[in-house]
């Protein structure tokens, strides 16, 4: 019974949240949101919109000046950061901000030692995470000797090994090459299959369009749109307000309309666009290479 | 140790008597106050020096920031109390805490009220070569960045369950490593990046420079400087003739 109630409760919920920094900057104003178990959500908006401030309220790094943030139905203001970090794992933008150990293995163990686990359990979890992240061969190397992409991977591993229910990423694709983004995407998929709740703060519109079903748009500390990614990111006035560029597929769609090709506005993916173009060319009597 | 004390070194632009003083007179202020603090080992004169700072801090509307910076030094105070009580006595420990508070306050007033650009100009006017003056002002300008970075590091470590406030001095010292190591590494990396960026913009190619703004010693700077020199003379006189001073000045705690 208890399990059922927990599943109905939102994993993360914020009601009328406000936060003012010590220099009187109002960083969050009247933020209301609810994220259910197993959801994958992107938070987007221009720099200074309040995205990072918002995610910092999830594990109690920031306690709201007004309103409440609840994790699994419990108010964050009545819990310590250490307690909350067992449930919410935040992976920060700059991995260099957390690496200090002599070896990569010790870096992982540092995260686990804060969990009251037995020595055997710590070793097992360390071995598993190093294997899953292809970092096993670097086990005894200094974290500072890794490349940019591998450092980011290690920073993610230091949070994943703690196995929190809610994973929050701050700009995970920033400075990552294509292969690293694919690795990250697969990682997200695996965690989604395990029923994890994932929140991603990103400026990468194409990544959100392709992989994230729900997007929350922020501007000036407040939420200005919350809904399916495709409909949120295709609205030009919202894109203007948040300094986002419309997704390439939407831009292409508009370009086709400008030259007189009536492309349905609900085309949102590469495959849908290819299908439409094939149909259009066929109607004009032009055969594609594969048809010929 | 809380990283809040770094807040005390962030320049904040305000229009107050203290902010409008010439950087050189403020540098003199920090040096004279620090020398005065070093002249005494007794609680009462040190307390009087600290008391003398309060109206100056208030004139710059900096009381809140100052209190925050002093609160951030709690961990250092604990170490001072333990070591000094162990090797000397508790009274000496309190004197040392007052001395540290005075010196930190004096320099925090300087950093809080001097614009980094004015600092470089004042050093140049004191015949410090431009390269050194620029490096010093650059280091000064990075204080807020380092403070912000320190906060980010603390947040990142806390997100992996790291607890800062654990009991025991040894644990507290050990606890600093996850913060200090990334902070030092990031600072060194940034220093290299800045050096490369400067060199790629031909830094140092012109030996003779002209400046858009210049700084000038005004009447209030002269008045403030005279006050400081009188204060230093008084402190030296009292210190050298301490045995002749009233007894209440030599008061110490009975423990």
Shape of chain A: globular
Distance between the termini of chain B: 27 Å
CATH architecture of the largest domain in chain A: 3-Layer(aba) Sandwich
State the low-pLDDT regions of chain B, or none.
none
Q: What structural class results from the helix and strand content of chain A?
A: alpha/beta
Strand order of the largest sheet of chain A: 6-7-8-3-9-10
Number of helices of chain B: 11
Structural class of chain B: mainly alpha
Strand residue percentage of chain B: under 5%
Largest interface (C-beta under 8 Å): A-B, 26 and 20 residues
The proportion of residues forming helix of chain B, as a percent range, comes to 55-70%
Give the averaged pLDDT of chain B, no decimals: 86
Number of individual domains of chain A? 2
CATH class type of the largest domain in chain A: Alpha Beta
Distance between the termini of chain A: 61 Å
Please count the beta strands of chain B (DSSP E, at least 2 residues each).
0
The run of helices and strands of chain A is HEEEHEEHEHHHEHEHEEHHHH
Compute the CA-based radius of gyration of chain B.
21 Å
What is the overall shape of chain B? flat
């Amino acid at each position: 019974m208890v399990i059922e109630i927990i599943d109905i409760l939102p994993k993360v919920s914020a009601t009328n949240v406000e936060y003012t920094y010590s220099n009187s900057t109002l960083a969050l104003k009247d933020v209301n949101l609810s994220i259910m178990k197993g959801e994958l959500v992107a938070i987007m908006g221009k720099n200074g919109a309040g995205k990072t401030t918002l995610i910092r309220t999830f594990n109690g790094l920031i306690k709201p000046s007004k309103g409440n943030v609840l994790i699994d139905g419990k108010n964050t203001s009545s819990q310590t950061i250490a307690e909350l970090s067992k449930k919410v794992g935040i992976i920060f933008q700059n991995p260099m901000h957390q690496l200090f150990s002599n070896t990569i293995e010790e870096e992982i163990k540092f995260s686990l030692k804060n969990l009251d686990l037995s020595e055997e359990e710590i070793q097992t979890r360390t071995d598993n995470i190093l294997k899953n992240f292809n970092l096993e061969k670097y086990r005894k190397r200094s974290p500072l000797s890794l490349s940019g992409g591998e450092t980011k991977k290690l920073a993610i591993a230091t949070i994943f090994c703690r196995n929190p229910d809610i994973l929050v990423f701050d700009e995970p694709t920033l400075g990552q090459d294509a292969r690293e983004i694919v690795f990250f995407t697969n990682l997200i998929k695996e965690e989604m299959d395990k029923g994890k709740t994932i929140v991603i703060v990103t400026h990468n519109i194409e990544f959100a369009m392709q992989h994230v079903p729900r997007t929350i748009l922020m501007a000036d500390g407040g939420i200005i749109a919350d809904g399916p990614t495709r409909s949120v990111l295709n609205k030009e006035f919202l894109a203007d307000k948040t300094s986002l560029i419309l997704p390439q597929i939407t831009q292409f769609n508009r370009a086709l309309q400008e030259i007189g090709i009536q492309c349905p506005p609900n085309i949102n993916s590469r495959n849908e666009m290819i299908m439409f173009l094939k149909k259009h060319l066929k109607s004009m009597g032009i055969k594609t290479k594969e048809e010929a | 140790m809380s990283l809040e004390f770094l807040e005390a070194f962030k320049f904040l632009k305000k229009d107050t008597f203290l902010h409008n003083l010439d950087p050189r007179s403020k540098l003199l202020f920090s040096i004279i106050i620090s020398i005065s603090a070093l002249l005494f080992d007794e609680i009462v004169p040190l307390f009087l020096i600290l008391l003398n700072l309060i109206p100056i801090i208030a004139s710059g509307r900096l009381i809140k920031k100052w209190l925050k910076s002093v609160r951030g030094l709690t961990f250092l105070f604990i170490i001072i109390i333990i070591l000094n009580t162990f090797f000397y006595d508790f009274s000496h420990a309190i004197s040392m805490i007052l001395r540290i508070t005075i010196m930190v306050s004096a320099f925090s007033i300087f950093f809080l009220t001097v614009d980094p650009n004015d600092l470089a100009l004042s050093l140049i006017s004191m015949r410090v070569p431009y390269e050194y003056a620029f490096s010093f002002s650059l280091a000064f300008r990075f204080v807020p960045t380092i403070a912000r970075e320190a906060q980010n590091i603390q947040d990142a470590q806390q997100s992996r369950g790291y607890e800062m406030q654990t009991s025991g001095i040894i644990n507290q010292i050990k606890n600093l490593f996850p913060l200090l190591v990334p902070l030092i590494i990031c600072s060194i990396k940034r220093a290299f990046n800045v050096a490369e960026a400067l060199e790629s913009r031909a830094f140092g190619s012109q030996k003779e420079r002209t400046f858009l703004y210049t700084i000038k010693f005004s009447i209030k700077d002269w008045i403030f400087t005279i006050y400081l020199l009188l204060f230093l003379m008084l402190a030296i006189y009292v210190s050298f003739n301490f045995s002749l001073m009233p007894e209440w000045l030599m008061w110490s705690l009975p423990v």
